[in-house]
Amino acid sequence: MSGGPRPIRFGTGLSARTRAVKPDDPSVLISVGNSARIFCTREYSGLADTVFFGRRLVCDAVPDPSTPSLPYSSVWNYSPLEYWEDNGDYYFTAVFPFSNSDVSIDNSYRLHVGYLAGNNTDLMVARTHQDATVSTDPVDLHFMHTTSAVRFLFGKSSASDQDNYELTAFELQNLVPSGTFMMTTRVSDPPSISFSNWGEFGNRTNLFSWTADTPGDRKTITHPAVVSDPDGYTPMGWYYMVPQTLSTDASVRFSVSYNNGEPVETILNFYGATDQNSELGTAWLPNCVYNYYITITQSGLDLTVKTVPWDEVQVITDDFNFEG
Fold first, then answer.
1. From 92, 163, 203, 261, which residue has the greatest number of CB atoms within 10 Å?
2. Do 134 and 183 touch, CB atoms closer than 8 A?
3. Closest listed residue to residue 149, CA positions, set 290, 248, 29, 9
4. What are the residue ranges spanned by the domains of the chain?
5. Within 13 A of 70's CA, how many CA atoms are on the CB side?
6. Cα(85)–Cα(132) distance, rounded to whole angstroms?
C-alpha cells in the first residue's frame, strides 16, 4: 500500500449503539467521554509484536480535516497515534470500561479481566482481526456484554388494593460476587461470549444490601397499569452479575411496610424459577437479561421471571444509588 503513513483508527459495530453501559447512566456505549482499553498484536513471518497494550481509547467528536465528509476522525481516539505497517495480521482486543484496571494478557495471548459484582459495571469486550494488506481503516470494535443483567421488579398484585405498600429493605443472598473473564485474543472471529469464558469464582456471599434510613427513602410499590411493562414496577437494579450456576439457596431478602406499619421481612428463594419459556432458572448466563417480577399482597406473593438475550432489548437503568 502507498500514500504515506496511515494512522490506526477505530470505529464501532453498529449494534453497539443500543447497549447500556453502567447504572445511573442511561446513555449508550458510544457517548462522548466514555473510554475503553485497547490491546493489539501484529503477527508477520512467524513473529509477534505488541502494538497496543492497555492504551486508553476515548470516545469523542474530534473532526478529521483530511476527510471532512466524515463526522469524526475516529469513534475512539487516542494519543500518540500508532501507524499501520504495510503487511501483517493485526489482532485487536478492547475492554470497556477503562476504569476496570484488573486486566492482563498472559504469555499465551489470553485476556484476563477480574470482575467484582459490587462495582456494578457493565463489563464489555470487543475482538477483531485486520489484515494490513487488505483493509486497515477503520478497525471496527463490536462490543459484547460479558455479565448477566439482573433486576427485581416489585408491584401490587391487584389494582383494587388501596393499601399503602413501601419497600424498606433489600438484599441479594448466596451469590457469587467475583470472577475472572478469560478470552483468547489471537483469533480472527468476533467474540462469542459463553459461560466457559468465566472462572476463578469467589465464595458466595450477600450483595447490594439496602435499607431505607428515613421514611422519605422508602420506595412506594404500586400496581402496574400494564402488567407486562417493567416500567410500571418499582425496580431494584440493574445488577451486572458474574455469570454463575445459582446455588439452591439463592434468595432475595426484602422488607415491606403495609399502611405505615412495621416492615415485614420476606426471604424469597428464586433458584429454579420458571421463565416464559418454561425453562428452569438454575444459572445466569452472560449477555442475558433477567427480570424477576415480584407481585405482593399482605397475605402472599408471586414470582415470575422473564429472560431474553441482551441484544434483543435496550436496557435502560434507573437513578437508584446502590449501597453495599
1. 92
2. no
3. 290
4. 14-145, 148-177+202-312
5. 15
6. 7
Asked if 97 and 21 count as a contact pair (C-beta separation under 8 A), the reply is yes
Contact 113, 180 (CB under 8 A): yes
| Overall CATH class of domain 148-177+202-312 | mainly beta
Q: Which three cell numbers stand for residue 13?
A: 459495530
Q: What are phi and psi of 177, to 5 degrees?
A: -90, -15
pLDDT tens readout for residues 7-26: 998 876 644 443 444 433 44
Let me know: does 129 contact 188? Beta carbons within 8 Å: yes
Can you tell me the distance from the alpha carbon of 151 to that of 238, in angstroms, rounded to the nearest whole number?
Answer: 5
Q: Which residue type sits at 27? A: S
274/308 Cα distance (integer angstroms): 13
At residue 102's C-alpha, the angle toward residues 98 and 103, to 5°, is: 70
CA–CA dist 243, 294 (Å, integer) = 22
The CATH fold assigned to 14-145 is Immunoglobulin-like (2.60.40)
pLDDT score at 122: 85
Q: What is the pLDDT of residue 268?
A: 96
Per-position DSSP letters for 7-52, written without gaps between them: B--B---GGGGG-EEETTEEEESS-TT-EEEEEEEEEETTEEEEEE
What is the rounded average pLDDT of the residues 74-89? 89
Cis preceding-peptide flag for 97 (omega within 30 of 0): yes
Cα of first residue to Cα of last residue in the chain, in angstroms, is: 55
Distance CA(171)–CA(178), nearest Å, equals 17
Higher pLDDT, 258 or 322: 258
Give kind and range of the element (H or E) at residue 116. Answer: strand 110-116
Output Rg (C-alpha) for the chain, integer angstroms: 23
